[in-house]
Amino acid sequence: MTDVTIITTLQHNVGDDFVREGILYLLDRVLGPMRLRMIHKHLPITTRQECSWLHGLGIDRWMDGRRPGSALRATSRLDSMLPLIPWTDKVLRSDVLVQSGAPIYWAIADDDCSKTEWWAPLIERRWSKRAKRGPFLNLAGGTCQHYHSDASEFASRPETLAYIRRYYDLCKLTTIRDRLSTEVLRHAGRQAELLPCTSIFAVDRLGISPLPGEYVVLNFMTGGGHFAFGQPIDGKLWESRFVAFVKRFSVKNRCLLVCHDHKELAAARRLLPGVATFWSPRHEDYLRCYAKARFGIVNRVHAAFALGSLGKPSVVIGADSRALMAGMIGLTSVFVNDATEEWLASSAVRLEQESDRYAMEMATRKESVKARYLELLTGALRNH
Fold this sequence. Notes:
Rossmann fold, 40% helix
């Protein structure tokens, strides 16, 4: 049986859970039964089995709420002082190591992807030093830049590009989930397979099928996303447009405000107290919720991918380059400043009209994407 270790997040981001479930669905078809181990990437010391309890207690969130980065610095310092223990370490025990989804390329102001918290302890200290290394797979990664980026900002950052090359060269297989990533890799002198995010296979792993549409899924994030990146985003304008649209639309349409975290839940209840909300600590519940949707109008790109995986169309209103992933599964995205009330209303009409056609197109797309992923994984994991 193959030991597979996944670098991911745990109880942190519903989208990350969808991506990981999709990867496991594909790996199961190539490797068969696996022994799975998970590392919470924001607390890399959890690669030590004896330290997994730190994440279970939420110590990373508790400490970071008091001093940004304090948990990471403290645990990283502790990890560097302790000897490596091969028989309890998830990286050192792995036959196959997988980095699951998420933004892997970014260069914003004084921050860039070479500073990612898990790289040094997990890859440089552990995996790259192993005498006999199993394959390292980097699957369904993408960018996180400003919405209209063309990746030119990477050209003037040689250290960032050096990191990207090393990351790529250490991996047996790299797949990317957005077109901007191809441009980032081009600046680094590399190229990778561009495929829709593996999150489209999460429902297949969990055995969740589409159901007749009962409601329209709505999702609201303040400012349209996590980061403004210096863009002139008018958060109040987006809020007023969204609220005005929903108030009109919900008069004749049953709506559900699906919230991926507590911040979204609080905003939804404050702005639209008359509209039903949904939140759950279990990512499976979100997929079952999306299975009963008619279509979606969302800020969360992985809400769109979950809906799309079930043949339900949506539009994504975003503030950074992650929103452009939507085009990989035949969906429309728009920069948050351009999402007027009229645009939202016309999108709702179009989505309703295109629902049946999209379901058929997405079913065909999923089959071809799955076939390509399995072909790539079979080649990368041959003899494992």
